[in-house]
From TrEMBL:
Primary subcellular site in the record, as a coarse category: other
Organism this protein belongs to: Chlorocebus sabaeus (Green monkey)
Lineage: Eukaryota, Metazoa, Chordata, Craniata, Vertebrata
GO biological process, one term: fatty acid alpha-oxidation
Cofactors (names): FMN
Gene Ontology terms for molecular function: (S)-2-hydroxy-acid oxidase activity; FMN binding
Subcellular location(s) of the protein: Peroxisome
Descriptive protein name: (S)-2-hydroxy-acid oxidase
Top-rank taxon: Eukaryota
Residues at the active site: H253 (proton acceptor)
Sites where the protein binds FMN: 84-86, 113, 135, 163, 229, 251, 284-288, 307-308
Amino acid sequence: MLESGPEMSLVCLTDFQAHAREHLSKSTRDFIEGGADDSVTRDDNIAAFQRIRLRPRYLRDVSEVDTRTTIQGEEISAPICIAPTGFHCLVWPDGEMSTARAAQAAGICYITSTFASCSLEDIVIAAPEGLRWFQLYVHPDLQLNKQLIQRVESLGFKALVITLDAPVCGNRRHDIRNQLRRNLTLTDLQSPKKGNSIPYFQMTPISTSLCWNDLSWFQSITRLPIILKGILTKEDAELAVKHNVQGIIVSNHGGRQLDEVLASIDALTEVVAAVKGKIEVYLDGGVRTGNDVLKALALGARCIFLGRPILWGLAYKGEHGVKEVLNILTNEFHTSMALTGCRSVAEINRNLIQFSRL
């Protein structure tokens, strides 16, 4: 959590990663960077973007390039938003409050995690005008889910993001070695009648019995649009449409759940094809450059969500570090649009890319 001196000049997202590696404790660093098992998918998330090549078009007037778009009808300044990650206080004292402030300042969406280390109320107070979605790990106690959903709805969150790919926790070897769970506490998975934080390891139960037919119960208790996070196949994408949800986040949990699944960007094409434009599709996993954002949109993503890079920015300079990460990536995306001949997000299409044989 050390601030770098004035001599530091971080100009790309991997610079923030290097800084975080140098300044965070080993257990925190391992928690952020770690993948499941051999981390094949974690690494392939990044490598897969590099297997896609761009096909720029020139002699187009790009004197004005507009990065704005909408998600679930709400305008965002760029298709670059913040994915749900837990325990931001591990890397910065104000944790998720700083993250929320940065998102509000940038004019983009922040998905707050069930495993936030700040209370939802404090996050909302920190950034009252921000666009917020809430990510839910479904607890076996339905009443606890209901209380939490009603709470986030009353606090002005605009969508409910249900994570599907964690009925059990992936085999994260670094965290097991570091016994990290013993040192973490939660503030939001508690009874509203109790004021104390509770240890993470006591609240890890996530429903192992959640099924497609259970989605109707969630739809019956909230008016929020429901987004399903963790879909990687056309079969599940078709079921999502059938069950009348409002969006899908193509995600493999940053390679932290089931190892050796498809990289997110490789799974995106079949999911987009399966939904046939009926619901919005988003992506997280492996985005590190403006070109990556462009490639995801060219393959049909409405926007991308950033996970680890947000934590790197937070570790660098809190709210200001997150702002820098978002600013750098947005500027890179703006440049990528201009250099491929796209004046608006609507002009980004499949013809801009091809898959490399390398």
